[in-house]
Automatic annotation (TrEMBL), chain A:
The keyword Transport applies. Belongs to the ABC transporter superfamily. Keywords: ATP-binding, Membrane, Nucleotide-binding, Repeat, Sugar transport, Transport. This is ATP-binding cassette domain-containing protein. SUPFAM superfamilies: P-loop containing nucleoside triphosphate hydrolases (SSF52540). Pfam families: ABC_tran (PF00005). Residues 12-247, 260-502 form the ABC transporter domain. Coiled coil: none annotated. GO terms for molecular function: ATP binding. It comes from Hoeflea alexandrii. PANTHER family: CARBOHYDRATE TRANSPORT ATP-BINDING PROTEIN MG119-RELATED (PTHR43790), GALACTOFURANOSE TRANSPORTER ATP-BINDING PROTEIN YTFR (PTHR43790:SF9). Gene3D superfamilies: P-loop containing nucleotide triphosphate hydrolases. The keyword Kinase does not apply.
TrEMBL record, chain B:
The chain crosses the membrane at residues 21-39, 51-69, 103-124, 136-155, 183-209, 230-248, 260-277, 284-301, 307-326. The keyword Cell membrane applies. It comes from the Bacteria. This is ABC transporter permease. It is found in: Cell membrane. InterPro entries: ABC_transp_permease. It is a multi-pass membrane protein. Its main location: membrane. Pfam families: BPD_transp_2. It comes from Hoeflea alexandrii.
Length: 508, 339
């Protein structure tokens, strides 16, 4: 199978492609090719040039130099997604679906079936029904996109691409927001597509997934091509090393011992909301407390409710032993607890603003002197944040959207730390960011704990939960189903609690 | 090598920004040059003063609109609001003559009444949008109709006229000058400075921008979104009441045709000035220039026979469309996509 694929000529290839934005070079003579019936993974740190290369391959960017070949012929790809007509489909990380339209309308968008000049809605719905059944997606063709979960939207995007008879399917981190089960289902579809001869480019930060699904792997670093090899020739470690360009020792920081007698800084009792049922737990000073669970288990809702971002039906929140009567995010911030969202783009940062206004937004009252904004203090905060969190921007005036995912996450961290919290809740601290930045963030969390700040880490990534937490609480269906401490934190136990195979009556 | 070329993108950003920010100023200067070429009397002191005074109403209202729009809202009710406030002011003042005579006291009562009404109407718009969770467009479309019909009702379909005694007392507010500038222009200048400080140098202004950029981000950043948004409408109401206070002595009357289309002129001034209609970016300086540009067009058409004065609306419309087209900012950068 593998040999057959390698003999086959490439469907789409880039030859010595370079790209600069203005005078800033981002790709240096990169070559990349993709063959029919193979999955070719493209990996690299944030800012390595993956997105740029994908956009060049799908016509969204033109090249500064170098050639693009389709079926061996040199070609100038049409821009703005019109390369779809040539069978090249890019599925963006930010999904491109019309939120207010139905699944069927989205899938047939721009090439609706009609009969006698009127839309043939019945036929379209029927075909979509068949396609959805094929991929095992259990949603109605009439469902509105805005009512679907992110995972379901992702699958709709894929169905849409398949329905367009894509010859080349380029997917930018399709599994970033999928659960393990959904990822499996998704891979099944990818294998089916592959078997039918589709050429697939797969970008992911999850290296084990790359190992599982890819036939060949190309690694980029700082805009340079590093290597392209058969997957079998890599190990997880060698991939990570080549991406980062250095040994990744001390990936997880050394953990200071948790002080079991430390003061309880946050105590939640009987928290109940629409989806949460009677959740109670304690958080101690200087502790890193992990919250693991499947998507929809209520972890985010729990902490949004604690921070007054959601409605609570019952339950109490006590800060350092005093029951809190705070009703707004601002009051919780002043009481020393802040929540860092997992949704950087929609809830975390003002993407069109510069780094400065973003960094001081949460703690803006600290930057007021005589009723006026203290611009000098704001500038200092920006410099402080950039230094402390190693935020790398092309220029200091760059807007948040121009930063890479990892730098956006660091900016978000800098933003919440300006409020000088005693308790930090970080939801998915490393979603969609590269290994190098992940490591920095882990070390930063450990440093916070060592300073006596309490950190709650909500994560769907098992290794990081195990690697950085003193204690782990597992949630399922709006309840805490298990607690693991120190040496007892292991993958097996966590999974059993998360999947509902094991449950203890947990009282915080 | 890398060091020598690195600063260039920043420089390019600065120049493209400058074209955007300077655009309205350049347009205004061009208009003035055209006006002068068509008729040198355009730049006479009398005409300039007249032009500034006339810009004051729309300008003051547009300063308020800048906040509403920057925070992602819209207020269509300002023209009707001005009319109903003017109407009520006149009724109140006429009815207090018996008690307080035709002196300053009566005028002050009228002004006080105007401010209370402005704040109240703005607050109502704000609460309906935030607590009532109704689109600002719909809320203010509704209140626009309500205010307009109320003034027609109060005037019984005709015109409300201010008592001639009070007119004499109140007249200076529109017609007198202080240090060579008419009073309305001073009010305009003060409102503009206050608005500029508020938008650029206070937490309130920053919060407006944040909310207009992304409400969810604002909420997660501990900003009391509903409260700030309501305040923008209250501020808009206050601006309308100030504009009305200097407008009433001009004609001394109010009718159902008072303030017609002011909302569109105010919004146009804001947009010409570079504020983004969908929110997240606002410029008070631009708004002021926008108001001046709109008035200048009308003024030039009055001065010349080349284009009929009836085409005033056409010219304003063209200017608005061109302004927004220029501000899109990606002309001349065809093919370049965002990173």
């Amino acid at each position: 199978m593998q040999e057959a694929a390698s003999i086959e000529a490439s469907v789409l290839s880039a030859e010595s492609v370079s790209k600069s934005f203005g005078t800033v070079p981002v790709l240096f003579s990169v070559s990349f090719d993709i063959r029919a019936g193979e999955v070719h993974a493209l990996i690299g740190e944030n800012g390595a040039g993956k997105s740029t290369l994908m956009k060049i391959l799908s016509g969204f960017h033109d090249t500064t130099s170098g050639a693009i070949r389709l079926d061996g012929e040199e070609i100038q790809l049409p821009g703005n997604g019109q390369a779809e007509a040539l069978g090249i489909v890019l599925i963006h990380q930010e999904l491109n679906l019309a939120e207010q339209m139905t699944v069927t309308e989205n899938i047939f968008l721009g090439r609706e079936l009609s009969r006698n000049g009127l839309l043939n809605r019945a036929e379209m719905a029927r075909r979509v029904g068949v396609m959805l059944a094929e991929v095992g997606l259990d949603v109605s063709p009439k469902a509105r996109i805005s009512d679907l979960s992110i995972a379901q939207k992702q699958m709709v995007e894929i169905v849409k691409a398949m329905s367009r008879n894509a010859r080349v399917l380029i997917m930018d981190e399709p599994t970033a927001v999928l659960t393990d089960a959904e990822t499996e289902l998704f891979f099944k579809q990818v294998r089916k597509l592959k078997a039918s001869g589709t050429a697939i480019v797969f970008v992911s930060h999850k290296l084990h997934e790359v190992m599982e699904i890819a036939d060949r792997i190309t690694i980029l670093r700082d805009g340079q091509w590093i290597t392209t090899k058969q997957t079998a020739e890599f190990t997880l470690d060698s991939m990570a090393q080549m991406m980062v360009g250095r040994e990744l020792s001390d990936f997880y920081p050394p953990m200071n011992e948790a002080d079991v007698d430390a003061e309880v800084v946050l105590s939640v009792r009987g928290m109940t909301t629409k989806n949460l049922r009677n959740v109670s737990f304690d958080l101690r000073k200087g502790e890193v407390l992990g919250f693991f669970g499947l998507i929809g288990s209520g972890r985010t809702e729990l902490f949004e409710t604690i921070c007054c971002l959601g409605e609570k039906a019952a339950g109490t929140v006590s800060l350092s032993g005093v029951e809190s009567s705070h009703a707004s995010v601002a009051e919780m911030r002043d009481a020393g607890i802040v929540y860092l969202t997992k949704d950087r783009k929609e809830k975390g940062l003002l993407m069109e603003q510069g780094m400065g206004p973003n960094i001081t937004l949460l703690a803006l009252p600290r930057f007021i002197r005589h009723f006026m904004l203290d611009r000098t203090a704001e500038q200092k905060a920006l410099e402080r944040g950039i230094r402390r969190f190693d935020i790398r921007a092309r220029d200091p005036k760059a807007r948040a959207r121009e930063l890479s995912g990892g730098n956006q996450q660091k900016l978000l961290l800098a933003k919440i730390m300006e409020a000088e919290p005693r308790i930090v809740v970080i939801d998915e601290p490393t979603r969609g960011i590269d290994v190098g930045t992940k490591q920095q963030i882990y070390h930063f969390i450990a440093a916070l704990a060592a300073e006596g700040i309490s950190v709650v880490v909500i994560s769907s990534e098992m290794p990081e939960i195990i690697g950085i937490c003193h204690r782990v609480l597992v949630m399922r269906s709006g309840r805490i189903t298990g607690e693991l401490t120190g040496e007892a934190i292991n993958e097996n136990e966590i999974v059993r609690y998360a999947a509902g195979l094991k449950e203890e009556t947990f009282r915080g | 090598m890398a060091d020598t070329i690195a600063p260039q993108p920043a420089a390019r950003r600065a120049t493209s920004l400058d074209i955007k920010t300077l655009g309205p100023a350049i347009a205004l200067i061009l208009l003035c040059v055209i006006g002068f070429l068509l008729n040198p009397a355009f730049l006479s002191e009398g005409n300039i003063t007249n032009l500034l005074t006339r810009s004051a109403f729309i300008g003051i209202i547009a300063v308020g609109a800048t906040f509403v729009i920057t925070a992602g809202g819209i207020d269509l009710s300002v023209g009707s609001m001005a009319a109903v406030i003017a109407g009520v002011m006149i009724i109140v003042m006429n009815n207090t003559i018996d008690t307080f005579g035709t002196g300053i006291a009566t005028v002050l009562i009228g002004c006080f009444c105007s401010i209370i009404l402005g704040l109240g109407a703005g607050w109502a718009n704000g609460m309906l949008t935030t607590k009532g969770k109704i689109e600002a467009f719909i809320v203010t479309l509704g209140t626009m109709g309500i205010f307009r019909s109320l003034v027609t009702y109060f005037a019984d379909g005709g015109t409300l006229s201010l008592d001639y005694g009070i007119r004499d007392t109140y007249r200076p507010v529109y017609y007198d000058s202080f240090m060579g500038l008419p009073i309305p222009v001073w009010v305009f200048i003060m409102v503009a400075i206050a608005g500029w400080v508020l938008l650029n140098w206070t937490a309130f202004g920053r919060y407006c921008t944040a909310i207009g950029s992304n409400e969810a981000v604002a909420r997660y950043s501990a900003i009391k979104v509903d409260r700030i948004k309501t305040w923008t409408y209250v501020l808009q109401g206050l601006c309308v009441s100030l504009a009305t206070i200097i407008y009433v002595p001009r004609l001394g009357s109010a009718s159902s045709s008072t303030g017609v289309l002011w909302e569109l002129e105010a919004i146009a001034a804001v947009i010409i000035g570079g504020t983004v209609l969908k929110g997240g970016y606002g410029r008070i300086g631009g708004t002021i220039l926008g108001a001046l540009i709109l008035t200048t067009i009308g003024n030039i058409l009055n001065f010349t026979d080349v284009i009929s004065n009836y085409l005033n609306g056409t010219m304003q419309g063209l200017i608005i469309i061109v302004a927004v087209w220029l501000q899109r900012g990606d002309w001349g950068r065809k093919g370049r996509t965002k990173l």
